[in-house]
Amino acid sequence: MPFKLLAFSVLSSCSGSVRGSAFVVRRSHQPLRNPEPRTSNFEPNVNTNREERTQNRERQLSRQLIALVTVAVATLAACTAAAPGAPESSGIPRAADGKPDFTGIWAGPGFAHTGKDTDTATVRRYTEANMPLKPGAKELLYRKYTGNVRIDDPTAVCLPNGLTRQIPSPYAQQWIQTPTQLVILYEYMHFFRVIPIGAPNRPHATDIEPTYMGDSIAWWEDDTLVIDTIGLNEWLLDAYHPEDGSSRWHSDKMHVVERLRFSDATNASYDVTIDDPVIFEKPWVEQWAMQLKPNWKLLEFICDDNDRCRTGNCTEADVQKSAAK
Amino acid sequence: MKIAGAIALAALAISPVSAHHSFSTEYDRTKPVSVTGVVRKVEWKNPHIWFYVDVKDARGRVTTWGFSGAPPSFLMRQGIPRDAMKVGDMVKVDGFRARDGSNNASGGRVTFADGRSVFTASPEDVRPD
């Protein structure tokens, strides 16, 4: 039957995207405005009088109407439940403006995600195999310890970790999204980013003073949030500090692009593209993830507090001073 | 130690974590230390917890050792309660001494009187075998 064919085409058009769902709604309503004309043209009973034919046709149209409404409702439900953008749009949080809503407390890439309230903090480092080093640039990336901790591991004296090390820091982060801004509050060292959301690929400001977190701007590419950052200090790339006594660095020409996309209601992929023309031949991507933790809250983190053995020179605690007995 | 705390601490024994800075800037992995004594104080503070253990020598003199552990947030988010280690607990602590040679160390592993052995240090830190 024609309306069955229509119903099939409606169900087939449930592509899983939000746009697909909207399209389905429009198509499912079309038959209601243009009821099936061909059915009466092929009425087999030539002996039926005009009144009977009219009644039959009304009953038939009524049945078709009910069937089509049912199909439309079922289709809508199926498209919604089966996750538009399957799986990326399925039940993901959305803001009032229809964009995916990243507002919430996240266990960033610096955790082994469990899906529960307890996650294991895990320091992630960028994967060496991903890095297309320029010839002769290995010494720019790997720098031997100098003996000065401010250079070798600045976080040991509570200096900032920098953007590329903050992204996978094993501490919570809270995201607050509005239509025009994204604010990220990092628990680690109380860092923050206030990132304007606007037109794709728009230029950064021209008078950027290099900083530890750089100048970030954001935009949407469909349901993907893109954060583009330049203006970064020459600083440590990540928390690489093995016993061989070296650390990994990036230059002040580094360009970082973060791409965030919900994979389901509580998980998001977190791709970080690193483009540092001083060290790497071409941009490369680290693929990470983050997970919403609605029952977490940001904790206070005062780096200077109780850092008793800074640089290996310990301060005697009160209980130790009074211990000689 | 309550059972819940024991389970939580046991979970910590197999979990990896990292400190806010490199281990080697503060501690010397070539200088392991092992002491047994009574917990005198626990500081559940950033950037790392500290706990102090009174250790009595053969002559009866008491030395208070300070041990650094993981950041409080790491422990909390693994379900480790702040009262997992209590003042008065008898513990054996294995770790590595601070670079200045003082009675301070990373508290890599804590063994309670009932035999439970747990890590309180960041997993990325150097740990005793």
Structure description:
The complex is a heterodimer of chains A (325) and B (129). With 325 residues, chain A is α+β, with helices and mostly antiparallel strands. Chain A folds into two domains: 2-81, no CATH class; 104-306, no CATH class. Helices cover 24% and strands 24% of the residues of chain A. Chain A contains eight helices and 14 strands. Chain A has helices spanning 2-12, 18-33, 38-41, 50-81, 138-141, 149-152, 163-166, 318-321; strands spanning 104-107, 111-112, 120-121, 142-144, 172-177, 181-186, 192-198, 215-221, 224-230, 235-236, 246-250, 255-262, 267-275, 284-292. In chain A, strand 13 and strand 14 (284-292) form a beta hairpin. The longest helix of chain A has 32 residues, at 50-81. The relative contact order of chain B is 0.27. Chain B has one domain: Beta Barrel (OB fold (Dihydrolipoamide Acetyltransferase, E2P)), CATH 2.40.50. By secondary structure, chain B is mainly beta. The two termini of chain B are 24 Å apart. Mean pLDDT of chain B is 79; it is low at 1-19. Chains A and B meet through strand 2 and strand 3 of A and strand 1, strand 2, strand 3 and helix 2 of B.
